[in-house]
Description:
Chain A: InterPro entries: ABC/ECF_trnsptr_transmembrane. The complex is a heterodimer. Chain A is mostly helical.
Amino acid sequence: MISLYRPGNSPLHRLPAGRKLLLIGALILAISIYPHTLWTLGASAAIVVAAFLIAGQGLRGLWRQTRVVLPLIVFTAVFQLIFLPWMSATITTVRILLVILLAALISLTTQTSAMLDAIERALTPLSRIGVRADRIALLLALTITVIPVIISFARDIITAHRARGVRPGPRTFVVPLLVQTMRFADELGEALNARGVRS
Amino acid sequence: MTARPSFGGADLARIAVFAALIAVLGTLPAIGGGVPITAQTLGVMLAGTVLGPWRGAAAILVLELLVLAGLPLLAGGRGGAGVFVSPSVGYLIGWIAGVIVIGLIVRADRRRPTILRTSVGVVLGGIVTIYAFGIPFQAGITGLTLGQTALSSLVFLPGDLIKAAITVALTLALWRAYPRAFGQSSRRPSATVGSVNTSAADAPATTEPRG
């Protein structure tokens, strides 16, 4: 499973997931609600660039993340420019980009397993209203192991189509994929029940 | 995953497998010929029609928690915490509510899903409900008014209507090909046995996927 995580040994990598979430979350909140001028926006941008450099992501890492959200940013910018004066359109668009980049930094510097543990810990207090954090953690782990299985189903169907010269479409592709997937779910369910997994 | 809709092993398996399916549909190149349509929202709507409201919503929640944990499982390889602070976060919340609405309407009784009820459910849940969550969040984050934001999201409406239509066709086709897929929650064993048996008799279990 490919994760967004980029291994490293920066201060941000070493920070525990929970504290990192709080720290970057606070920064995101501050940048989001502050009534920016071009100057404070520039300062915020400098903070984001510095954070990427500290995290060992470099300017290339910064650009890579920017490129991923570029369609969204362009879409936002177009409608900002249609409805708002260019100054506030620029400030809003850049602010949105900065906030997304900061949040991406969490995922770039935190291993998926550490984030999953943090999520489980965050959900544990909800046991009072009946949320079973351990059950959710099991579901998340189960889903991660199932994804490659579904990918292999999809590949088989595409290969079979190619061999027969069938043009893949929603019905010829998704219906067989759904059937195989739900069959697999039934087998998996029996296996879980046989091992006494019940809530 | 609260105490009230309590899930057995079969439910957990369906939730996990469907969450994985939605993720895989998001990685596929766009299907549908001329109009580029990512298949991910198809998966979201299908979660409601196939799994029903609660297991369907749980599947979406599982997918989104994995995205939050740093896996790029959304269409186009997007993922990570950044998704949850972007202007489109409301649509992700809307997915959960939308699937519940779809499930409640389409799976109101245990009978075979009709075109009419499935269409109404998919449009109300998969489009109206999702936009009803998506637009206010987008407006709040971008600073535009609700009207202006609604206008900007009209861009996506034709694609979403096509996906809704495809979802209806896929749901009915799945019912013919593998009615067991719609199996009831293991919460009500007495009802489950009846409905699964009759529907399994409609189409023999030997129906192979045309893959």
